[in-house]
Amino acid sequence: MTRSDLAVEYGGSTQGGIVASRQSNMVFLFTDPGHGSQFGYVYDGFDDDGSAYYYTGAGQNGDQVLTHSNAPIARAAERGSAIHLFAADGFVAGTGTRRQRYIGEFIVDPNEPVQRMPALSTDGVKLRTVLVFRLLPSTEVSPQLVDAAGRSQIPREPFAVEVPTEINSAEFFETAGTADQVAVRRESDLVASFLSSNPDRDFSRWAINLPAEHTRLLTDVYDERERVLYEAKAIAGRSDLRMAVGQLYDYRRHIDVAELRCSVLLPTRPSADLRDLLADAGLGLVFREQDQFNFELAGTPRTHATAPRS
Questions:
Q1: Based on the domain organization, do 138 and 11 belong to the same domain?
Q2: How many CA atoms lie within 13 A of 21 on its CB side?
Q3: What is the H or E stretch that residue 88 is in?
Q4: Residue 265 falls within a domain, yes or no?
Q5: Are 219 and 235 in contact (CB under 8 A)?
Q6: How many Å apart are CA 123 and CA 60, to the nearest integer?
Q7: Is 100 helix (H, G, I), strand (E, B) or coil?
Q8: How far is CA 265 from the centre of its chain?
Q9: Would you list the DSSP string of 172-204?
Q10: What is the C-alpha to C-alpha distance for residues 270 and 224, in angstroms, rounded to an integer?
């Protein structure tokens, strides 16, 4: 069928890749395997065994968000909307109108609904992040339809993506060693204070994807200019610092930055023995002192970057 046929029958627009029809409480997704690389949309397609389909969200410039055009997918389960996928397949004879092949009905994977992936902006220069939804077919999809919809180029090996500081960890990522909500809020306040006290620096975060474990880790703060990765803790106690040391050592294995330094961000100065622990581990120390932050230990730069993963 064509998109016009679909709109007449079920409602919805004939424009855009994500179309929500209020008339029928359906969400229609359209993909074009022949033009998947445009705007960095190389992730659309089935995984190797055809058990899941990956669909890139809407938004051709800047980091994509879950609201606006992407909300119909993100909130489909909540709204009871059925998701139907179509793939462009040929043209109506004698015209430039694309035909749409129906692939099937899908649901958003409740265990791994969405992840962020790197992509280039429309100018082909600036790196941004896009949302990639993981969709599960409601019924088995035939091999012919899997081939028609294409295969995803989503990485199967661990990788890290630099993302804005505003990324909400609760929406996209698991944070290693998550504490109770009070501690999380205190850490968030500490990070916000640290960022605002250094307005001349460029800060971001790293999202570390571990596909084999279906896990994504999100670091706290990354200083792009100084190449320093910070892990914030709400309490300057031994158990918290030991956890911070482990997290930073885990994070930096996956972050491909030459001479990367790692540092712990605390609300107060820790004891002398804990400062020695950080120094022996080659980690830096920054702590809040009244209205300022004291950079007491710089941390030892890593001498080489992590080898790129194939």
A1: yes
A2: 20
A3: strand 82-91
A4: yes
A5: no
A6: 10
A7: strand
A8: 24
A9: H-BPTT---HHHHHHHHHHHHHHHHT-TTS-EE
A10: 26
Q: Are residues 183 and 103 in the same domain?
A: no
Tokens of 211: 């596909």
Residue with token string 């902006």 = 121
pLDDT tens per residue across span 122-157: 666 677 888 999 999 999 999 999 999 999 988 888
Residues 76 and 106 in one domain: yes
- Measured CA to CA in angstroms, residue 146 lies from 44, 128, 195, 211 at distances of 12, 28, 46, 21
First to last CA, the chain: 40
**Closest by CA position to 225, among listed 261, 191, 190, 193:** 261
Residue 283 sits in the same domain as residue 167: yes
| Structure token digits, residue 233 | 């803790």
The b/e string for 23-53 (b: 16+ C-beta within 10 A; e otherwise) is: eeebbbbbbbeeebeebbbbbbbbbeebebb
Residue pLDDT, tens place only, 169-208: 555 555 544 456 777 788 989 999 999 999 999 999 998 8
Q: Round to whole Å and give the CA distance between 209 and 244.
A: 19
